[in-house]
Each structure stands twice: as structure tokens, then as C-alpha cells.
Amino acid sequence: MTNKKPTEALSRFITELKFENIPPNCLYAVKMAFLDALGCGLFGSAAPWARIINQMVKDYGGKEEAALWADGYRGPCHNIVMGLGSMIHSFDFDDYHNAKVHPGAVVIPAAVTFGEKEGISGRELITAVAAGYETMIRISLGTGPKASRSRGWHLTGTCGPFGAAAAVGE
Length: 170
Prior knowledge:
By secondary structure, this protein is mainly α. It contains 8 helices and 2 strands. Helix content is 68%, strand content 2%. A two-stranded antiparallel ribbon has the order 1-2. A hairpin with a 6-residue loop joins β1 and β2 (74-75).
């Protein structure tokens, strides 16, 4: 991304990313991140706080667009994302990047739920996750993670929405 305008370069990266152009080591990393998120989410589904949030998701009801893991409930993407993200991040064992973020708890639920709704392929899912991770990590690095955290910002929460948007928009 060698553009003078970082936001423009990042947007171009997101919109032009193709599965065929993702390096093999990155493909491997995305697959491992997905497996990690799945494992953390299934384990986290039994946590009391995840059960509370998932009950709230069910109580809200709505259009059946995506599934809540380990439950069988189907609901609207915007609620299912919250449930999955809470399950994945329940014990803070989910993936971590030195940009001081946990991208899997934010990017993967967004990509999976909206991907399920739209019926995307595995390749499209991998591409969406790669775009989301890259976006979230770059934005976190752009904030100066150490300075942001010392001011009390939780970068997974502040940078995550950009990663989720990139994954869903991919």
C-alpha cells in the first residue's frame, strides 16, 4: 500500500483483494484464525456471560439469517454477530496481534454471519476475513497502539468495527 493517502490505499486494497492474490502463508493464517475462533467460540458458548448475551439475542428475535453456534438458533446477522463475538472472546484465549487487537472476535463473526446470509463460497469467506484482519490491524497500528491503550482505549473495540465492515463489504 504505497499511496500518499493511507485511507484511499486501504480502501483500494479492500475492494481489489482477490483470493488468487492472497499469499499462501496468509491463507494458512486465515484458516488457522478461523479454527481458533471456532474453538474459542464453542468453548465460550458455555460461559455464563455468553449465555446471557445469547438469550438476549434470542429474545430480540427477528429474521432467520445466520446461526448461533452450538445452539441451533437462527436470527438476524446484526444480533448473531454480537453473540458469536462474545462467545469467541469469552475467555480471552482468542487470537491476538501485536497491534494490540483480537481480530478474530470481531472480523470472523461478521464475515461468517453475513456470508451465511448471502450464501458466499469458502474462498469468498477467506478473502473477506483477510480483508477484515488487514484493515483492523492497520487501523490499530495507525493509532499508535501503546499510546491508545495508555489513554484507556480498548483497540479491539475501537478498531474492530472497521475490520468487520471491511470483511462484510468485501
